[in-house]
Design goal:
single chain; about 230 residues; alpha/beta; Spore Coat Polysaccharide Biosynthesis Protein SpsA, Chain A; nine-stranded mixed beta sheet
Length: about 230
């Protein structure tokens, strides 16, 4: 066992009314080849059977329920409960490849100056979609660089430097966080490997919140304002 395999990785899964796909997601996290992981599922006020699905996996996972506050609030709750040296995040529908965590920890072992390791993503249509729905939801064939919460593995102290996810945004939550991380100069590495399969389905957060694209403009403005303040100091 490598020295870095003694370090605990906390995987935080957020779910809100995601019972259809949650079990498959949890299984993809539980089946990681890395020996030291804690898995925390934060149920963000689900009104369907998500809680029952999650609790089937106890004690392999820790289950926590909170009133609905959004993805950022759920991930922040998971962070508050986490005891690991590294943090990883997922939603209720995307699937990690089997050696995601182990391969990312190997990158950290080779370069101790890194703060974050990302990997590539392959998108797929969820099996329950009709042919018509598949035609409406674009699904690229190629692997794509995954600068996203779902592919990220980050050192605990590095995450703490940036701070929690902002609860003021409805979409692009990770974009806002990553803008703050880059402003602070956090070092990241993009692995060429496939680390996550992103499920495309009817209730994708990005699809149902298309009207929130103005948030991106506000995020960029906020980032520019922070940079101006830093350069003025």
């Amino acid at each position: 066992m490598h020295d870095n395999e003694n370090q605990l990785v906390s995987a935080v899964i957020s779910v809100y009314n995601g019972e259809r796909h949650l079990a498959e997601t949890i299984e993809s996290v539980i089946s990681q080849g890395y020996p030291r992981m804690e898995i925390i599922i934060v149920d963000d006020g689900s009104t369907d059977g998500s809680g029952k699905v999650a609790q089937r996996f106890v004690p392999s996972v820790r289950y926590h329920y909170q009133p609905n506050g959004g993805i950022a609030a759920a991930w922040n709750c998971g962070i508050a409960l986490a005891t690991g040296d590294f943090f990883a995040f997922n939603g209720a529908d995307d699937l990690w490849t089997m050696d995601k965590i182990r391969s990312q920890m190997d990158v950290f072992r080779r370069d101790s100056a890194l703060d974050i390791v990302f990997g590539h993503v392959k998108q797929f249509h969820s099996p329950e979609l009709s042919d018509r729905e598949r035609q409406r939801i674009w699904c690229p064939d190629e692997l794509m660089p995954g600068v996203s919460a779902g592919t990220m593995l980050i050192r605990r102290e590095s995450f703490s430097r940036v701070g929690p996810f902002s609860t003021m945004w409805r979409r692009g939550i990770f974009n806002d966080w990553y803008l703050r991380a880059t402003e602070l100069g956090l070092r990241s590495h993009m692995m060429p490997d496939l680390l996550m399969r992103r499920r495309l389905h009817r209730a994708n957060h990005g699809i149902i919140n298309r009207d929130k694209s103005v948030d991106y403009v506000r995020m960029l403005k906020a980032s520019l304002d922070r940079r101006r303040l830093q350069s003025a100091d």
